[in-house]
Structure formats: structure tokens, C-alpha cells
Design a protein that fits this description.
Number of strands: 9
Distance between the termini: 36 Å
Number of domains: 1
CATH topology: Nucleoside Triphosphate Pyrophosphohydrolase
Radius of gyration: 16 Å
Strand order of the largest sheet: 6-3-8-7
CATH architecture: Alpha-Beta Complex
Structural class: alpha+beta
Shape: globular
CATH class: Alpha Beta
CATH superfamily: Nucleoside Triphosphate Pyrophosphohydrolase
Largest sheet: 4 strands, mixed
Order of helices and strands: EEEEEEHEEEHH
Strand content: 35-45%
Helix content: 10-25%
């Protein structure tokens, strides 16, 4: 059971927690992180969602909800370790964007890593594959609707800053 801290519209904790799966109270938000990982070649790491999940078999960046008591950075590091078995160096990460959506605040992180795909250990019920892609391949995957459509266009939204 996941428990989240609740936030107001300005991303300030309100001193209450929430259990995942229960509708959020009106005017409350939780915090999610999206973790984009870039290598020295300028490629980004995408993971393929387990077929039993919503958006199954689509490609995405790593991400998830921040748990009670975690900072955004701690949540990003935990999610990456859980889903990919990849321990990121916190000093190699940068918070690029924070945006408020319908029921959550989204922190979008960019990390540097040159991990070898074969060294990743996928969380069985979350991830079934991973690959490095360049901008051309990423844009092609977007046009073919192979990437989770709720994600921002990476190069324009994150690297374009």
C-alpha cells in the first residue's frame, strides 16, 4: 500500500497523507516524478511498460509517485532503483520542470548515466525492456504512438530549455 503526502495547489505540504487508490480530496494534490536519463551520446533511456499495466507495451521514462516523507529527488532515485535496478548519482540529476496537472504536481528530472542495458534489472510487474534512443528515433516512436501519450515531448520540453 502506497501512502503519499498531500499538497495544495502551490506544492506546499498540507500535513495530511493519502492512500493510493482512494479518490483525492477536492483541492489536494500528490507529487509524482518523471526521470529522464541521458547518456554521453545524447541518447535517452526508455523503458517498456509491462503489458498488464495501463498503457501496457508502451515506452516511457521511469517515474512514479513520491511516498510520504520523501523529497522529490529521493522519490526519483527510489523509483529508478526499483524499476530498473539503476542507482543514480544524485549529483548527476537536475530538476528541469515542475508542473501542476489535474490531481498531481509533476517534477521532471534529468539525470546523466551511461548504464549498459544488459546491466539493468527490471521490476517484474513494471518493466519488460529498455533501450537507448536518439532524437530521431524518439520522434519516430512518438509519431507511431509507441510512447505513453501523457508524457511531454522530451527534447522540446526538457532539453529545449
Amino acid at each position: 500500500m502506497e501512502i503519499w503526502d498531500l499538497y495544495d495547489e502551490n506544492k506546499k505540504k498540507i500535513g495530511k497523507t493519502h492512500v493510493r487508490g482512494v479518490p483525492l480530496p477536492e483541492g489536494c494534490y500528490h507529487l509524482v516524478v518523471h526521470i529522464w536519463i541521458q547518456n554521453d551520446k545524447g541518447e535517452i533511456l526508455l523503458s517498456k511498460r509491462h503489458p498488464q499495466k495501463s498503457w501496457g507495451n508502451y515506452w516511457e521514462c521511469t517515474g512514479g509517485s513520491v511516498l510520504t516523507g520523501e523529497t522529490s529527488l529521493e522519490g526519483a532515485l527510489r523509483e529508478t532503483a526499483e524499476e530498473l535496478g539503476l542507482v543514480l548519482d544524485p549529483s548527476q540529476g537536475k530538476l528541469m520542470i515542475n508542473e501542476r496537472r489535474k490531481h498531481f504536481h509533476s517534477d521532471i528530472w534529468l539525470f546523466q548515466s551511461n548504464v549498459v542495458i544488459e546491466d539493468l534489472q527490471f521490476q517484474e510487474d513494471e518493466v519488460i525492456d529498455a533501450k537507448w534512443v536518439d532524437k530521431v528515433t524518439y520522434e519516430d516512436m512518438l509519431s507511431k504512438k509507441e510512447i505513453v501519450p501523457t508524457l511531454p515531448h522530451f527534447w522540446n520540453e526538457v532539453l529545449g530549455r
